[in-house]
Amino acid sequence: MPGGRSRSPCLEGKRVPRREGGAGGTPDRRPLPRPRGPPQSGQQDLGTSEGVNAVQKVTFPNGSVSMAGNLYLPDGFDPNGSYPAVVAVHPGGGVKEQTAGLYAGKLAEQGFVALAFDASFQGDSGGEPHHLEDPAARVEDVRAAVDYLQTLGYVDAERIGGLGVCAGGGYLVNAALTDYRIKALTTVSAVNIGTSFRRGWYGTDSDAAAVPTLQAVAQQRTAEANGADAAYLPYVPAEPDENTPRDLVEANDYYLTPRAQHPNAKNKFLFTKSVSRIFTFDAFHLVEELLTQPVLIVAGSDAGSLWMSTELHGRVRSPKKLVVVEGGTHMDFYDVPKYVDRALAEAVPFFRENLAATAAN
C-alpha cells in the first residue's frame, strides 16, 4: 500500500489462536456448493435446485446506475400470487454469486422471493469508477433493491425483509434506519465497515489509529492528481502469514481458491476514493433511536468480528435476538453447511413471523 500500512481489517490484525470445534469435535467445514447462476443467454434456469423454481437474471435502476441481480423464485411459484421477499446483501469484496446468492437460494427453498445483487461499482452492476467501495452507495443499493421488489406484482410490498452478510449486514442495518419498508432484518457475521477499518479487525485500536492511513491517502491522492496510476488495496490478504487473523486466512481460502472464487470478485478496491469514504462511516449511528424493526443477529463464538454483533445487539432497542453459535468463525457462515444451516434455522422462522401477512399489514 502506498505511503503506509492500512487500517483495513482485511490487511491487518493480531494473531489469533486456532481453536477447532467444540465439545463435539471438529465440525465439517466442507463448503456448500454455490447456487448455479442463471445462464448468460437466458432469463431463467428452471429447476436450479430442489425447492427453487427458477433464477432470473434481472437489472434495476439505482439513480443513473444499472444494478445487476439474481432473483430466486420458490418452487411452485405462481406469478399471480403474493409472496414475502428478502433482499440478500453481499460482503465487501463479494458478488451476488457467492454467499449472498447461497442464502437467497436457501430462502427461496423456504417459500420466499429472494434477490441477491451486485453492489454499485462492483461485479456486473454499473457505476464508474469500478472497484469503488462507497458505504453511502452500498446503503442506497439496498433501498434500490427494495424499490425493485416493490414493482413486482407477485411481491407483497408490505412483506419485505433483508439479510446481510459481513459488511452487507452493516449496510442493511444502516438502510433500515431510514427505510421502514424493510420490515425485518437479519445480520450474519455482521461488520460495521467504517468502525472495523478504523479500529482493526478486533476493535482494539482507537479511532485515531486511522490517522496514518488517512495521511497516506492524502499523499496518494496528490500523486494521482498529478498523473500517477490509481492505487488499489485488497479486501483479503493475498498471502497470509503467521500474523494474519484466522478469519482473514479463511477469507483468503474463500475468495481466492476454487472454494468460492468468482471472476467478478477481483479482491481489490480503490485506495483513495474508497478509504476516505469508509473511514468516516458508522453503520450503527443512531441505531438506538431510528431502528424500529425486529432484528436477528447471528455470529460465531470464535469470530474475531463477534464484537460488532454484540455491540449492535447491545445498542438496538427494537425487538432483537442475538444468536452466538459455538465454534463458528466469521467465514464459516459464508458456505459451511453446519453454520449456514444454523443461521437459516434462525432466519427462516424469524422472517416467517415478521413478514407474515398479519404481522406486516
Low-confidence stretches: 1-27, 36-47
Distance between the termini: 51 Å
> Structural class given helices, strands, pairing?
alpha/beta
Helix content class: 25-40%
Shape: globular
Biggest β-sheet description: 8 strands, mixed
**Total number of β-strand segments?**
10
Spatial strand order of the main sheet:
1-2-4-3-5-6-9-10
The ordered H/E elements are: EEEHEHEHEHHEHEHHEHEHHH
Mean of the pLDDT scores? 89
Explain the layout of strands and helices.
Layout lengths: L51 E11 L2 E10 L8 E7 L9 H11 L3 E5 L17 H16 L4 E11 L1 H12 L3 E7 L4 H7 L11 H15 L6 E2 L12 H11 L12 E2 H8 L8 H4 L4 E6 L5 H10 L4 E6 L6 H4 L1 H18 L2 H4 L1
Parallel strand pairs: 3-4, 3-5, 5-6, 6-9, 9-10
Antiparallel strand pairs: 1-2, 2-4, 7-8
Description of the structure:
- It is built from 12 helices and 10 strands.
- With 361 residues, it is of the alpha/beta class.
- The strands form 2 sheets. An 8-stranded mixed sheet has the order 1-2-4-3-5-6-9-10, with helices on both faces. Strands 7-8 form a two-stranded antiparallel sheet.
- Strand 1 (52-62) and strand 2 (65-74) form a beta hairpin.
- Mean pLDDT is 89; it is low at 1-27 and 36-47.
